[in-house]
Amino acid sequence: MKVLSHFFALLHYLSIYVVSVPTPSNDVDINPYPTKPRLTFRQDGTFKITVFSDQHYGENPWDWWGPEQDANSTRLMKRVLPDEKPDYVVLNGDLITGENAFKENATLLVEEVVAPLNELKIPFSTTQGNHDNQVNITHLAEIKREQLIAPLSYTRIAPPGVGGDPEQGPGNYWVPIYASKASRSPSLILWFFDSRGGFAPANSTNTSDPVEVEDWVHESVAQWIEDEVALMDKAWGPSEENRAALAFVHIPP
Ligand SMILES: *[C@@H]1O[C@H](CO)[C@@H](O)[C@H](O)[C@H]1NC(C)=O
Ligand SMILES: *[C@@H]1O[C@H](CO)[C@@H](O)[C@H](O)[C@H]1NC(C)=O
Ligand SMILES: *[C@@H]1O[C@H](CO)[C@@H](O)[C@H](O)[C@H]1NC(C)=O
Ligand SMILES: *[C@@H]1O[C@H](CO)[C@@H](O)[C@H](O)[C@H]1NC(C)=O
Ligand SMILES: *[C@@H]1O[C@H](CO)[C@@H](O)[C@H](O)[C@H]1NC(C)=O
């Protein structure tokens, strides 16, 4: 049943259409991706996001069904993506079954998960889930690997002090979407929050037991959102009139 439920979790992909709103231009550019392609709405005013969640790569690598399930997931992505032709893809957490991962090669699984996106050159980003924080893998390790091997990854790491433990909760960031290549300010902000969860390796000499990590977004993120929005408002005008927002998080509040 576990095999099937995970396979169907992947099948449960979702498309979101957002309608663009006109934007005023401004001289200050706080776009955090100066070297990456600017993400824009289509000419017809739509922006299509395809979401995959709970892919759980690397489950039971010592059984036949784990690797076969991963091959099936990759096959599904390679079938869905050319069909949907999304403008952006979100992998919304539990990319890896961390509790079945090996320390020496756990992040290789990240390469496997994002391979279809690299191949088809689709911009994307990820959130991490409770299964991505385990003894042999952390959210930070996954994000660093992704940034290294995926040229069109827009995943970023929160500034120091934001998100709780920097290993288990760093995936808080935002991605601006512009009306057109020429727009000075974005009309949509995609927000990504790290809901932590899972386990951290034992951090006390008294025990070898892994430590459970709180499975919600760390309170420091609230102030960070306010600070970021204040920056955006200053650069691009008040949010209410100028920008829509859409948020992604693995474990919702
Ligand atoms: C992989 O996909 C094939 C064809 O759809 C299916 O028969 C098989 O059960 C799947 N394997 C797993 C482990 O889900
Ligand atoms: C972590 O990786 C090590 C080294 O491969 C392995 O021996 C150990 O069983 C793994 N631990 C867990 C909890 O999976
Ligand atoms: C990692 O190493 C283990 C143990 O040697 C192996 O079973 C597994 O397939 C490897 N995983 C990857 C992604 O290379
Ligand atoms: C161990 O980690 C937990 C969870 O991150 C933390 O609350 C606790 O303070 C840590 N304990 C020590 C001794 O570092
Ligand atoms: C370790 O155990 C000792 C003795 O039970 C206790 O006094 C101490 O507070 C423990 N330390 C931690 C970090 O849990």
From TrEMBL:
Query: What's any one GO cellular component for it?
Result: cytoplasm
Please tell me whether the keyword Signal is annotated for this protein: yes
Query: What Gene Ontology molecular function terms does this protein carry?
Result: hydrolase activity, acting on ester bonds
Q: Which residues form the Calcineurin-like phosphoesterase domain?
A: 47-213
**Alphabetical keyword list:** Signal
Highest taxon of the source?
A: Eukaryota
List each coiled-coil range.
none
Extract the signal peptide range. Answer: 1-20
Please name the Pfam families in this protein's record. Metallophos (PF00149)
Protein name, per record: Calcineurin-like phosphoesterase domain-containing protein
- Which species does this protein come from? Tetrapyrgos nigripes
